[in-house]
Write a structure and sequence with these properties.
By secondary structure, this protein is mainly alpha-helical. The chain has seven helices and two strands. The longest helix has about 35 residues.
Length: about 220
């Protein structure tokens, strides 16, 4: 069970994600500066490993899942290779799925509400988007043409899938990226459902913790 002994471990992950998504659009199109986006993404991975590192075995598993993703991420700077993209996407799903589960366990087992618990709950929601972005990428690599990006010259990229994932998770759906295959539509529907169920269950859980905390006081 995760120990609540290190302060700001979940807040650090949340801050790294916010910085990554805030800075990435600003660096697009600037040659040489694009590498900074991968540095920020690497910071997200490292902070996530630190957040679940209260038990050495969990830290070892998380680091083992992150390493292939980091290696493939940086090797892609030497040229696009489908094998590296596939490896990175598969381990993206595994890493964020594993760390999201551990962090969600901390939220469920929390005896009281704190800023760290709220940050942890938000981090899990953000990780859901990254998990599905990896799933979409794997699907497109194994079944090309599963998605259609309207008005785009090149095919789908990891950034396209991250954008599509979050718009689906929040059920926003601008319609500029369309799932074509049956598998793509099934994954999109599942993500939208899980996104809404997670928010409903999360709010109920936090309200329950708050009520129990208030009764204890």
């Amino acid at each position: 069970m995760m120990k609540e002994t290190v302060r700001f471990r979940f807040s650090s992950v949340l801050a790294a994600i916010v910085v990554y998504w805030a800075v990435t659009p600003l660096l697009q199109g600037f040659f040489g500066l694009v590498v900074l986006t991968d540095l920020f993404f690497s910071a997200v991975l490292i902070s996530a490993i630190w957040a679940v590192a209260q038990i050495p075995r969990q830290a070892a598993v998380a680091a083992g899942l992150a390493l292939p993703m980091l290696v493939s991420l940086w090797l892609l700077h030497f040229g696009p290779r489908p094998v590296l993209l596939l490896i990175g996407s598969v381990f993206e799903v595994l890493f964020f799925g594993y760390t999201a589960w551990l962090i969600l366990s901390a939220v469920i087992k929390a005896p009281a509400i704190s800023r760290e618990i709220i940050a942890a709950a938000i981090v899990v929601y953000m990780f859901l988007g990254l998990i599905w972005a990896g799933l979409y990428s794997v699907l497109e690599l194994l079944q090309p043409g599963s998605f259609l990006i309207h008005g785009a010259v090149a095919g789908p990229t990891s950034r396209h899938f991250a954008y599509f994932s979050y718009t689906t998770l929040t059920t926003l759906g601008y319609g500029d990226i369309t799932p074509i295959s049956g598998s793509a539509r099934a994954l999109s529907t599942l993500e939208a459902l899980i996104g809404q169920i997670y928010l409903a269950v999360l709010i109920a859980r936090l309200v329950g913790i708050h009520a129990a905390q208030g009764s204890g006081e």
